[in-house]
């Protein structure tokens, strides 16, 4: 193994220009679901979240948890099963329906009248509501604030040119004493355009005046399939953002 991959202290690329013009359209994301190109979905859930979940939820009940670009993330059921309220947003109706089917949850659906073509799917238990629309069309004014956000596969999937708008959207949803859990990837963006599933997000872009940011863990996420991306290392980082 190359010595450069034995350390988690891989060079951070500060050049944000490399991928700035890359764009994945909503139609392309929907096509990924239709064509089964959803390698980003984790059937067993995210292991770093599972490792830290009890610590985050200790002595807490009735939290409101937001899943941006939720897909059919099984982690939504983890929170719901612990008595918390889950709201997600996903552009793929297929992904949302697969979530309820695969988790054996009955649900209802209804149109969102103010957003053409948008729908909301609600579990019969009432503690999971998934909105089928663009994250930027999500009806924030009627939703309220959240105690926690689980951002895995969301920020990294947002087109680089839309990150500021996305960050503003997320900040508008945060309540007092929030916990924002964020997963990003480190790789050489000069070797990979980012259009497969995730863009490179430099650490500098995550710093802000509103949040404290702490890296909880870094793990080697490189797999054989990533060689086709042209990269030779891939690390996943789990951050916790809290109110300053």
Automatic annotation (TrEMBL):
UniProt-listed InterPro entries: SAM-dependent_MTases_sf, Thiopurine_S-MeTrfase, TPMT
A Pfam family hit: TPMT
Q: What is its EC number?
A: 2.1.1.67
- Write one Gene Ontology MF term: S-adenosyl-L-methionine binding
Does the keyword Transferase belong to this entry? yes
Q: What class of enzyme is it?
A: transferase
Principal subcellular localization: cytoplasm
Protein localization: Cytoplasm
Question: Does the record bear Zinc-finger in its keywords?
Answer: no
Swiss-Prot/TrEMBL keywords: Cytoplasm, Methyltransferase, S-adenosyl-L-methionine, Transferase
Out of the domains of life, which is the source? Answer: Eukaryota
Describe the protein's quaternary organization and the partners it interacts with: Monomer.
Known PANTHER family for this protein?
THIOPURINE S-METHYLTRANSFERASE
This chain's protein is named: Thiopurine S-methyltransferase
